[in-house]
Amino acid sequence: MPVDMELEMVLRPPQIPMPPYPPKLITLANGKKMVIRQAVREDVPAILKSVHPCLFIERDYYDIVSARLYGELLAWYRYRVKSEYCLLGQVDGYLVGVVNGRLENEKVGMSYHTLAIDRGLDRTLDQLAIIGLLISLPLPGGGNAVRRDRVLKPPSKLDG
Question: CA nearest 99: which of 116, 114, 80, 84?
């Protein structure tokens, strides 16, 4: 069944253009190197396959966070959310963590969820998000979009 493009354009929310997020390389506590990169819409099916097993982990809210992340990524893939972004953490080419959110406007971004697929990285991803390495996104009008729910001040030590 062909999609009615006129209806489709009404259903698609407007998008705020975002400059690309430059990849970053982070050395983890175990000595491995983690690449943080921006996902593109075409990555979503592969991300969903990695998130799916986490839907059945009934501890530490993995099932709830995974379900929400799965739905949000699927909505982004289907063009049903406004200005969504997704950042991936990869070690040796394997997906180990996902952070997603959206821009509310050209100056304010909102983080949705952080999921560590590789158990043990959840604290590391949260710490990186706190100091702004993961979610300080460049904005079209200059400046950065930051999480509204956290103050982005670097802690005295990354592990403290």
Answer: 114
Report helix, strand or coil for 89: strand
Give the count of domains, the chain: 1
Look up the CATH number of the domain holding residue 47.
Answer: 3.40.630.30
What residues form DSSP beta bridges with 113? 100
State the greatest distance between any 2 C-alpha atoms of the chain, in Å, as a whole number. 57
Chain centroid to CA 62: 16
Tokens of residue 142, six digits: 């200059």
Question: Domain range holding 81?
Answer: 23-145
Is the CA virtual torsion 53, 57, 60, 63 positive or negative? positive
- The answer to the question of residue 10 being in a domain is no
Residue 89 and residue 125 in contact, taking contact as beta carbons nearer than 8 Å: yes
Identify the bridge partners of residue 114 per DSSP, sorted by sequence position: 99
pLDDT in tens, the chain (160 residues): 456 777 777 778 888 888 888 899 988 878 888 899 999 999 999 999 999 998 998 888 889 999 999 999 999 999 988 889 999 989 888 888 899 988 888 888 888 888 888 765 555 555 444 434 444 444 444 544 443 333 333 333 333 3
